[in-house]
Amino acid sequence: MTAQSPDKYFYNDEWYFEDAHQGSGLFDPRAYGFDPSSRGTACYRGFICEYEITDSQLFLKNLLITTDSDSYPDLNGVSVSIKGYEEVGIIFKRRKPIYDTSIRDFNMKKYKDVKLPLSYTGKLIIGKNFLREYYVHAPIQRPFTYETLLELTFENGKLIETVDFSEDARIIREQVDLKDPEWREQLKKLSIDYEKYWWVR
Known about the structure:
It contains 2 helices and 9 strands. By secondary structure, the protein is mainly beta. The protein folds into 2 domains: 103 residues, no CATH class; 68 residues, no CATH class. Strands 1, 2, 3, 4, 5, 6, 7, 8 and 9 form a 9-stranded mixed sheet that branches. Strand 8 and strand 9 form a beta hairpin. It is globular, with a radius of gyration of 17 Å. About 11% of the residues have low confidence.
């Protein structure tokens, strides 16, 4: 399956990509009157969220979406600000891009600066500086293939804890041959605490 365009998070003045979440309360366009539809194989769900964390509160910052009905209602008082094509940005930047999220491919519409507060409760794994040599042609990249890997814990939309798993990810990369089809079996031999490392898959 084609790699899917992940959601993005603006945190501590940097952009990260979501790799896993465990909880409820992230943005659901259907709850706001949208009927998202896929226009490209790299975004089967038909929308991409760009979140931000400001003063420990989680917000929906921007939304990129296509709909079956071609209807785009206002979102938190914001109208569609861009109709047509716009570059969203490259996901993996190691020497040359592996793929990007250009809405030229999806004909997406954009809601900009929505600033919609969310009441997410749960955990998120976000990463930056993807190591392109570990790319796999799968919907989501493996969390430990990012140089920087963070776990964020929220309660009703408030960030209550941040754990840096970058060193853990580095150890996994060093001890496991990720090119081996049996890499999951190798992981088991590391005696990983799967409750703590729920994002390992």
